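Re: beginner question about structure tokens

> Can someone show what the tokenized structure looks like for a real chain? I only ever see the sequence side.

Sure, here's an example I had lying around. Input first:
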Amino acid sequence: MNATATRIFAGAGAARSQQGAATRAGLFRRGHDGGDWEGLVNGLPVNAEVHTILVRPDNPNEILAGTQDGPYRSTDGGDHWQRLGFPEPDVMIWSLTIHPTRPNVLYAGSAPIALYRSLDGGANWHRLRNAVSPAHCERAGFDSRVLRITVDPSRPDDIYAALEVSGVIRSTDGGETWSDMSAPLIRFADQPRYQNNVGGRHCGVCEGMLDSHATAISPAAPETVFLGLRMGLFRSNDRGATWHDAEIGRFSPLTYCHDVIVSAHDPHVLYTCLSPAAFSTDGSLYRSADLGATWSRIDHGVKAESTLMAVAEHPADPVRIACVTRSGQVFGTGDSGASWREYRLPQGVEDVYAVACA
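And the corresponding structure tokens:
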């Protein structure tokens, strides 16, 4: 593929379909405006499970992918891949983040919960030993995981990690030490409308408030953290000391939130993925132009057949946006949401978590 073309990447894990068949894992690429999906394999692990994709905003040909054997990097737009200097084998990477003001600093999050940092642009990594899970809702057979790592651009030593299903932790010293910011979330479960437990865990009715999926911070709202979780979209105006329900239900009949991002092109613009539940037959993409005060649906002319999992902007072209459903539908727009096209992933790809534009 032409390395200067606009591309969409999608990553899938390995799971069982609802009929019990094994699903197809991998990393896939296609043109935003045409072409077929390619399975990317050159240098990646066999049957690579890819749950997160990071495109360097200053170089769209440099891409990192989180796999079941740590992070891998491509410097040619995905044609070739190389394992980075990761300290442990067989670690499933679920999140990757580049520091907003220190481009050589990167963070990775895994399952079971652990956090890693690179100080040399991703070439080598070390584990942050004090980043531990509070283990609010861990259960046998399910590894809690770090689904998002967010650095506050206004306080570049402040880092937040969204843990599924164990709340939120924060570091105020660049990742050396961490604090659990989940107690205010747990208190929401004192109210019946925030009580939720899908069964099998050990945290009672507060489980839904600890099922964290994504954090986001805008340069236009210093020290304000947005948090997407099972029970909706929440907001903290004081660095996680307290949390408030953003009441996304005022604008959407669907409130299960699996992703929220801030536009790289306009700090007042946010996007969020909303669905009925983790496994569902519906999903919708909403945009806010006023830092989350109001929201409007923008995915017109397409229909999600399963939970909407992730959304991504093109780092250099704000009109190009892509989102992905769990079952392998990728939706793309080249006109800021005025029109959409569906690019369904190859047959058998049904456990999709990640999408990126480059």
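Each token stands for a local structural state, so reading them left to right follows the chain. The radius of gyration is 19 Å.
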